[in-house]
Amino acid sequence: MEKTDKKILEEIIRVDHAGERGAIKIYEGQLLALNTIKNDNQLKHIIEEMKEHEKEHLQYFEKEIQKRKMKPTYFLPLWDLIGVSLGFGTAMLGKKAAMLCTASVEEVIENHYQNQLKKIGDDEKDLKTNIEKFKEDEVNHKNIAYKAGASKTGFYSIMDKMIKTGSKIAINISEKI
Ligand SMILES: [Fe+2]
Ligand SMILES: [Fe+2]
């Protein structure tokens, strides 16, 4: 594919910017619970490390937004609130729920990045390389989450579906406005 559709390109950058920021907010919410009410240093360490990767991802999209003189999604304040709440809530439920949250989100994002890669042409090599790299990081996060105890049985399967549906709605909105 030669050229990336301009409208699709803007959608890609806007939604990825929102998503990476959302990921940081979820981890901030989880760390808030882990720094106050819940005590799990091992989990805290895992989350802090993944958050560092998300910061790197966000920085890249922030730079792209500025460079291309784009506007981020109008929904950032709402996503921030939902992200922190989701993070806090899942961490309060315990390690299994906190890690399921990561696994569920990353499964959506892995697909999301994969779909985007198909739409990016040779005129946007840098963007493509970065999204490929970020996708690998997210797959890693997913694997870390399962290793740390993410579970999809019983009640957790409902949580998984809710988080996935919510993430997809946020993606659809953030692509457009
Ligand atoms: Fe990320
Ligand atoms: Fe991630």
A few lines on this structure:
With 177 residues, the chain is mainly alpha-helical.
Secondary structure blueprint with pairings:
Elements: H1 6-36, H2 41-67, H3 76-93, H4 95-119, H5 125-147, H6 155-176
Bound molecules: fe (ii) ion (2 copies).
Description:
With 177 residues, the chain is mainly α. It is 82% helix and 0% strand. It has six helices and no strands. It has helices at 6-36, 41-67, 76-93, 95-119, 125-147, 155-176. Helix 1 (6-36) crosses helix 6, helix 2 (41-67) runs antiparallel to helix 5 (125-147) and helix 4 runs antiparallel to helix 5. The chain is elongated and about 50 Å long. The relative contact order is 0.18. The model has no long low-confidence stretch (mean pLDDT 96). One fe (ii) ion binds next to helix 2 and helix 5.
Tally of individual helices: 6
Largest β-sheet summary: none
Computed over alpha carbons, the radius of gyration is 16 Å
Shape, per Cα inertia axes: elongated
List the secondary-structure elements in sequence, H or E.
HHHHHH
**Helix amount, in percent?**
over 70%
Low-pLDDT regions: none
Global mean pLDDT? 96
Our estimate of the beta-strand percent is under 5%
Q: What multimeric state do the chains show?
A: single chain
Instruction: Give the end-to-end Cα distance, rounded to a whole number of Å.
Output: 26 Å
